[in-house]
Amino acid sequence: MSLSQSLGIPESKVASGIAALLHLAKDKIPPAHFDPVLAMIPGAADLLNATPAPAADGSSGLFGGLAGLLGGQLGDSATAFAALQKAGIPAEKILPFAQSAFLKIQEIAGPEVVAEMAQHVPALKSLLSPKA
Asked: CB-hemisphere CA count at 13 Å for 129?
């Protein structure tokens, strides 16, 4: 089942959300680690190249502004939330969307690759850890 079907989000919004997550990862992960992952995900490079990166100036509303103030993992989480919201992912579906997206990347690229990504983007650890 696709992300669109499982979460009830239109395919165009899913594509925008995936692109936003890829742009955020690209900004945090050195090219030597990010580029091989990008190459493993079918269509990801084209999607990334076809979409503009989210604004880094805090213009993405409240969460974008908070990201700049908070910094670190909390700031990364706020940045991701703001970018996904701007991409059209409803607020109540952002966490399941991000979790599903990175679990799919883990399925494609392997847990070691995603664990290495999480070293550069610590907010990923909370997405990939099951909640009790």
From this structure: 8
Neighbours of 10 (CB within 10 A): 10
Sorted by where each begins, the domain ranges of the chain are 3-128
* Contact present, 97 and 17 (Cβ < 8 Å): yes
In tens, the pLDDT along 42-81 reads 999 999 999 887 665 444 444 444 444 444 556 677 788 8
CA distance to 27, 49, 82, per residue, from 86 (Å): 17, 18, 6
Enter the pTM of the model.
Answer: 0.79
CB crowding 34-54: b at 16 or more within 10 Å, else e: beebbeebeebeebbeebeeb
